[in-house]
């Protein structure tokens, strides 16, 4: 009988716990989206429009690699290594510099 009571209590608490998890997931998703928007605004400030568009297009194909490149670009900008908005040609040169022999992610 005690097991039934425990089962009933657990059953009653389950929807509350599930609702709590959903709220946590929504909060985490909102924070992730906010961070992504902030990062995109910052990239828009250091890349000319054509370079920014190239990076976004490449991101559709190779998300992880381009996320790493974006992180490097933002780091370089924060450290003063990028002093003006990069053109598409300058971005291409940087991407070629990041590529290794076995990667074709940065081929144009």
TrEMBL record:
One annotated Gene Ontology cellular component of this protein: nucleus
Record-linked Gene3D superfamilies: PDCD5-like
Compositional bias (Polar residues): 10-27
Region described as Disordered: spans on this chain: 1-42
Coiled coil: none
GO molecular function, one term: DNA binding
Basic and acidic residues composition-biased segments: 28-40
One Pfam family it belongs to: dsDNA_bind
Family the UniProt entry places it in: Belongs to the PDCD5 family.
PANTHER family attached to this UniProt entry: PROGRAMMED CELL DEATH PROTEIN 5 (PTHR10840)
Protein name per the record: DNA-binding TFAR19-related protein
Organism of provenance: Coemansia reversa (strain ATCC 12441 / NRRL 1564)
């Amino acid at each position: 009988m005690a097991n039934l009571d425990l089962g009933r209590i657990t059953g009653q608490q389950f929807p509350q716990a599930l609702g709590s998890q959903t709220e946590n997931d929504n909060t985490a998703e909102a924070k992730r989206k906010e961070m992504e928007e902030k990062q995109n605004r910052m990239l828009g400030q250091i890349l000319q429009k054509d370079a920014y568009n190239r990076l976004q297009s490449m991101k559709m194909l190779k998300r992880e690699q381009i996320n790493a490149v974006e992180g490097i670009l933002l780091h370089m900008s924060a450290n003063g290594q990028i002093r003006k908005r990069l053109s598409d040609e300058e971005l291409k040169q940087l991407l070629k510099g990041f590529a290794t022999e076995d990667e074709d992610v940065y081929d144009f």
